[in-house]
Amino acid sequence: MLQFIEFERHRTLEDEPVLNPLLLTHFTATSCAGRGLDATLAALSTGRSGLAPCDFEGAALDTYAGRVAGVEGAPVRADLAEFDCRNNRLAQLAMTQDGFDERVREAIARYGAGRVGVFMGTSTAGILETELAYQRRDAQTGALPATFKYATTHNPYSLAAFVRAYFALRGPAMSVSSACSSGAKVFGSARRMLETGLIDAAVVGGVDTLCLTTLYGFNSLELLAPGPCRPFDVKRDGISIGEAAAFGLLERDRPDHADDDAIRLLGIGESSDAYHMSSPHPDGLGARMAMEQALASAGLDARDIGYVNLHGTATPSNDAAESRALTSLFERVPCSSTKGATGHTLGAAGALEAVIAALALKHQMIPAGANTSEPDPALGLDYVLTTRQTPLHAVLSNSFGFGGTNCSLVFGRKGAGSA
């Protein structure tokens, strides 16, 4: 297996073409750290965490969670009532921040409703609706309530279908459910359709919300931290589950686009090492493959990257494996995991952290790793504890999921790597 992985890594890098950059023309994010970009940026700049003792209904667990306030009181638009569930409510709440929905409608006017695609990442979608439905089963027959609509709530595709219906789009739509890499892998799916000319713009994103299946599932794996998670800390002891919705609008880099400071998607790396159902390869081989491929497709070297947003779940083994992968490629690159601020938002994490990477580029800053106070010296990282202002030309964001589904994204400004 190791020989095969090594062979596949070299074969992939030799054949990897340099991507045509795509414009990330607009983006937004909502999590426990805040609604919209201003609130998210404020939390990252100050190292503030949105994690709090878990008070999710029905979850009697001694842990912290990243809950977005107000989702319960924000039903989806009346004409889309069949999609109403916590996951789609959070999606709608996020799409209305930062004028994102307005920018999407501008793209629709520019290209046509059939030329804008939808690519959404999620792990559990509206599974909470199924949990609630089972609590309301008929006592005699065990039948689920007639009001329960699996296809438009629990079904992973319900998220993409909801976003497509919200904007009245007629282009292709798909959901990616590859565990914690879902919200990053949608960028690859969108890029492929843009490159083939099937679409002219893509709404990409990730949404995952709190539910008992997730909370108790990770508790059964003994992965939940009793307090706020502490990524890469010498005393790290588990993850904090969060919920989030993050979106981006991808378009081709038009010749008439003169803004060299615009954020561009430069590179994408995807791998599947399948080392174990839930644990990463101890040396991070799959993670390294994804990062190498992302750099190669961006036409960049490791030294061109000014910041790495780490996957950083705050479990002992995951953080150690990612550190080994990172230090085998980079020499003391500044890095941090922002999950200390947002929690691990699972299928939304890749999209949320892509937005955070874009914010880092836009504001020329490296966000601090909230809650981490003593980085583990054995990991050998330049782990950032206080937000730094520094020139950034290109940044990398990592998302690694169960089963070895890995994805790394490179974002940058025009001319990244030539400075």
Automatic annotation (TrEMBL):
Q: Which residues form the signal peptide?
A: none
According to the UniProt entry, its GO molecular function terms are: 3-oxoacyl-[acyl-carrier-protein] synthase activity
InterPro entries tied to this protein: Beta-ketoacyl_synthase, Ketoacyl_synth_AS, Ketoacyl_synth_C, Ketoacyl_synth_N, PKS_Beta-ketoAc_synthase_dom, Thiolase-like
Q: Which residues form the Ketosynthase family 3 (KS3) domain?
A: 1-413
Which UniProt keywords are given for this protein, alphabetically ordered? Transferase
- Report the SMART domains cross-referenced here: PKS_KS
Answer whether the UniProt record assigns the keyword Aminoacyl-tRNA synthetase to this protein.
no
The molecule here is called 3-oxoacyl-ACP synthase
